[in-house]
Known about the structure:
Blueprint: H1 3-10, H2 18-37, H3 51-57, H4 61-65, H5 71-81, H6 92-99, H7 104-123, H8 128-138, H9 141-157, H10 161-189, H11 210-216
Amino acid sequence: LSQVAMAPLLMPRDGKTLADSIGKELTAELDGELKRINPQLNSAPFQPLKTWAVTMTLPILKYQLAGSKAVDQILTEKATKAGKETLALETIQSQFGVLDGFEENEDIILLKETLRQIKDDRAAGEDSIDNLLAAYTSGDEALVAAEIDKSLKRVAESEHKELGQRFMKKLFDDRNLSMSVSIDEQLKLAPAKVRFFAVGAGHYVGKDNIRDHLTKKGYRITRIED
Length: 226
């Protein structure tokens, strides 16, 4: 789906700007964090977006500004160039629907929590996204699981524990189930075809991950070492 087609899904229907939704104080806090990423940056370019879109962008913004691409984007580009058929396990509408399913006051809380965690990381001399990427590139499942567990622990210790748990459930558990159903359907649709499925590493670890769901459906899962 092109960026032009995605844009309406990221914009509020009521015409509010980001500052209208989150208020002056939180806007100023956001501006401060954005300037730490790039001294020329502020919240102005984000004003047309929904609060959750800004929240999800903030932790990975420095990578986007550096020109980094997500693994699924790289794989899709390579497959397309090679003339291979490409499909999606999720529609962009269903994926965004996970994040779009909270009340505005909850979206604001999630933005505040994200800003707080970024500040906590900085105070500790860490970067959660850097740590997660390092764990991912190592190929060590235990390291990936440990980094995700850190996020879950933060959620559990937060004053907004219930909201955090709902968010993590929608982000991981619910999507693990729906993507495993999609994989099962694709495999049954063309059993003679070899399929290559790519999902985020976080969907392979933890309780009720994609592999667990597929194993329950009768599939045998084997890890291939490079």
